[in-house]
Structure formats: structure tokens, C-alpha cells
Design brief:
The protein is of the alpha/beta class. It folds into 2 domains: about 150 residues, HAD superfamily/HAD-like (Rossmann fold), CATH 3.40.50; about 80 residues, DNA polymerase, domain 1. Helices cover about 45% and strands about 10% of the residues. It is globular. The model has no long low-confidence stretch (mean pLDDT about 95).
Amino acid sequence: MQAKALLFDTFGTLTDWRSSIARQIRPRLPDEATAFRFTDEWRALYQPAMEEVRSGRRPFAPLDVLHRENLDRILPDFGLEHLGKAERADITRFWHRLDPWPDVREGLLALRDQAITVVHSNANVALAVGLIRFGRLSFDAILGAEVTGHYKPQPECYLRACALLALPPGECMMVAAHNDDLEAAQGCGLQTAFIPRPLEHGPGQTKDLKPEGDWTIVAEDTDDLARKLRERAT
């Protein structure tokens, strides 16, 4: 069955968040290594913060709020506790200004010719809009966590996104660089496409280097995904 909608993870799959955050924080830190350490420590709080919401221990909060709370936690570790509210707000918006991987801009255009393209991210809407505008990316809709009221990999996040598109899950395809995201989507009946991003977490990455499930498509990048979708349609 040809997918009528492609639901894209954004962080990692479409953007090089690690290099982008390190580049933006670098002027406030002594060297590049410290900038990457700052980025990694900030990101390390990402899943635990969302788990507080997924578990029901706190009400739903958009990712910009979680990022800001996590930022406040790590600033003292880097001698930046003196930063005021305006500077902290600007640093939080670093996540709105992430560089796309080199293949993404043209790849999305090719994919949009074949199917509905949808942001399906844990990013809140304002964050996703920032990413789209900064990266000049082509999408038809923004769904995901804030719209569905659930963070991935909760099933409601995938199923409500499909319902909002008025499509059955089998006609939607989750596209991600993360095997756990695809496993959750597949469990909800979606088709799946794996795109490896072996440098998402830097040169020492050990996870998601290869497909670890029976995914519908395994592609080298977004351009390759567009080619493989065309081949399936013929």
C-alpha cells in the first residue's frame, strides 16, 4: 500500500541538533569541546523531562517549557548561572534554529510531490514553525506532541495524528532515524521508514546506526526515500 502521508521525526532525523546547539552556545563558553559537552548534558535531560509528562506525574507541558527548565538546571555547571531571563529565553530558542542535514531540503521537496508531508515531532508548534522557517523546509502540516497532547512513543501520539489527517494508520508512514520511534509507530499500524543519522550524537554514537526492525523501507537519506517510494508506486 502506498503511503498517503509521511510523518517525520525532526530532531536527529531532519536536523543536526548537536552541532547546531554547540555552534550557537560556543561564544558563551571557553572552547568547542565545552560547547559540545553543554549540548550533550542539555539533551540528556530531554527524555527524563518528557517521561514526567508521559507518566502522568505532571500535566502536559510543551517542549519549549521543558527545554527552558532543563537549561536552568545545567547553567550553573558551566558558570552561566548569571544569565538573565532574556538571555535564557534566547538560548532556549536555539532549538528553533537547527541546521537541516544536507539532503533534507531538496529531499522533502521530492517527497512532498508524492505524499502529504507532516512534522510529527515532540516539538511544540512554535518550535516546529521555527525549524521549518529557519531550515526552509517544506511541510503540509504540523502535528505531534502538542497537537495530540501526548509525547512519543505513546500510542495516542501516532493514532491521533493519523485521525487528524483522516487517514487509517496503514496509509501513514513514520519516518525516523530512531528504531524505538519506528517500533512504536509500527505497533500502531503505521508503515515505517528508517533513515540512519550516524552522527546525530557525535562521532561516538553507538545507537541507531542500523535498522533494528522489519521496517517498510530503509533509506540512506531523504533523497533515497523519495526514490524508493517512487519505485514502490510503479
